[in-house]
Write a structure and sequence with these properties.
heterodimer; A: alpha/beta; 5 helices; 8 strands; B: about 230 residues; alpha/beta; Rossmann fold; 7 helices; globular; YjeF_N_dom_sf (chain A)
Chain lengths: ~200, ~230
């Protein structure tokens, strides 16, 4: 079962802990939902934008868990970026992951990404900055401040220019790590996140 | 005990959490708490070997998850899992451990002294808060042996064999207790060195509804040291 946890390190300002979590239609979006729930447990105030919901029962349950925890779901994403800049401290980009193929061209992702390109508050991307090609990276796409690579960094992470790069998802058995020659960094102690 | 069961019911029925999700978070808390109280460098054995004894229900499942995370944290867990439910969840958890080269003992060490020699720590994941009635074999003999073990024992949620509310004065006396979600009544009888809280997944609304009055977890930690 895909019980992943992605904990972006809380380098966000704590005094108004509002965070916008933008979730795409597939697995990356589902990870965003799990992340939002844990952010709520950590006393942040997440708000979710999840326009195209997956029919997968597991992901539908993730949605219920968030709703029952009083995490608001926006019915639309303001195109006026100043509204986003003013209301939130950061945006978690859980729109598209490594599995996306041309997904960024399809609505509503294209419109979301167009808006996110212009916001000024930090973006934390989960696994792959949405809209980037998982291997070659993106030009003219979004520029996240923080990248949280899941399990291991993807090829496109080489082009990441933001402030902090973390690896999270401490669950890869050693034989899988060896088989795919992943050489992940060592996680400190019992941490599930390591800064690169 | 009823309150704990009621909270669980709400989590599964209203919040739509899956058993997998909560068991994973619970098991991870246990491994994390153990790693904080008994870092590998503190072991008297040459390697940080841990015996994880898993019972026939969810407490056993928590133990399997815990064993897997202990392996990820650099410990060398060995599991004893004599009564396995034939449900996909438990079969999958077992496979995950096996694929990570965590050995499963074919039989339980007959003498407490053997356990003391081979392992630096025992994790008691036999019975949890749903435990009612008598202890069926093989767990009666297992608990008798564990009661004579001198290496530390870390119990998951309830020291196995204890009455969930009243404890058991002549029963297992673990060194560590990891209470999941909230401490149970039996925890008032706990006399060991380390009491941790784990299972950081109870939504604030449920905490209020059941007046759990849990102290705050530090930062993003999934465990809280109570004593």
């Amino acid at each position: 079962s895909r019980v992943l946890q992605a904990f972006p390190l809380p380098s966000l300002p704590r005094k108004q802990p509002t965070v916008l979590v933008v979730c795409g239609p597939a697995q990356n979006g589902a990870i965003g939902l799990v992340c939002a729930r844990h952010l709520r447990i950590f006393d942040y105030e997440p708000t979710i934008f999840y326009p195209k919901r997956s029919p997968d029962p597991l992901f539908r349950d993730f949605t219920t868990q968030c709703e029952k925890m009083d995490i608001p779901f926006l019915s639309y994403l303001p195109t006026e970026v100043q509204l986003i800049n003013d209301a939130y401290n950061a945006v978690v980009d859980a729109v598209l992951g490594a599995e996306a193929e041309g997904g960024e061209g399809r609505e509503p992702c294209a419109a979301i990404l167009a808006t996110l390109k212009h916001i000024r508050i930090p973006i934390v991307s989960l696994d792959v900055p949405s809209g980037w090609d998982a291997e070659s990276g993106g030009s003219g796409g979004i520029s996240p401040d923080v990248l949280v690579s899941l399990a291991a960094p993807k090829e496109c992470a080489r082009r990441f220019l933001g402030r902090q790069h973390f690896v999270a998802g401490r669950f890869l058995p050693y034989d899988v790590q060896k088989k795919f020659e992943l050489n992940p960094p060592e996680y400190p102690g019992t941490e599930c996140v390591v800064a690169l | 005990q009823e309150e704990a069961q009621a909270i669980d019911q709400e989590l599964f029925t209203d919040y739509k959490f899956s058993v997998d999700q909560l068991m994973e978070l619970a098991g991870l808390s246990c491994a994390t708490a153990i790693a904080k109280a008994y870092p590998p460098s503190s072991f008297t054995t040459s390697e940080p070997t841990v015996l994880v004894v898993c019972g026939p229900g969810n407490n056993g499942g928590d133990g399997l998850v815990c064993a897997r995370h202990l392996k990820m944290f650099g410990y060398l867990p060995t599991v004893y899992y004599p009564k396995r439910p034939s449900k996909p969840l438990f079969e999958a958890l077992t496979t995950q451990c096996e694929k990570m080269d965590i050995p499963f003992l074919p039989e339980f060490p007959t003498e407490a002294a053997f356990i003391d020699e081979l392992y630096g720590l025992v994790v008691d994941a036999i019975f949890g808060f749903s435990f009612k009635g008598g202890v069926r074999e093989p767990f009666g003999s297992i608990l008798s042996t564990l009661e004579r073990v001198t290496v530390p024992i870390a119990s998951i949620d309830i020291p196995s064999g204890w009455d969930v509310e009243k404890g058991k004065a002549d029963g297992l006396q673990p060194d560590m207790l990891i209470s999941l979600t909230a401490p149970k009544k039996a925890a008032t009888h706990f006399a060991g060195r380390y009491h941790f809280l784990g299972g950081r997944f109870v939504p604030p609304a449920l905490q209020d509804k059941y007046a759990l009055n849990l102290p705050a977890y530090p930062g993003t930690d999934c465990v809280l040291q109570l004593t």
